[in-house]
Design brief:
121 residues, alpha+beta, 3-stranded antiparallel sheet, 3-stranded mixed sheet, 5 helices
Length: 121
Amino acid sequence: LALVRHAQEQAGAFTRAQALGSGYSRKQIRHRLDRGGWIAVHPRVYLSVLTRETPEVRTVAALLYCGEGAMFSHVTAARMHGMDLHPAADPVWITIPHGRRIAGRPGIRIVRSRNMRHPPG
């Protein structure tokens, strides 16, 4: 149930760490991926095969891939706040803390910033 809650809160996407923290073993995760019950959309970021891939799912999965401290930025942040500036097929823009390094992925633009401010809450 914990993993279902994570997925519900994250547009259907969840991380390997969340699956492990919810009681799945490495072997169970591998089995679900090998059998097609889960789909890896990025390294260590998964969807259930029952989850429809939408622009929102793609956007949240990109944020999960970028990890702790990552935030939506540029047109992606504007879109998440209800502004429709560009087609949803644009890359997902994510800003991460300057000291972090993350491998680039197709469809994700990663920007590093020395001046990250997290929203309250």
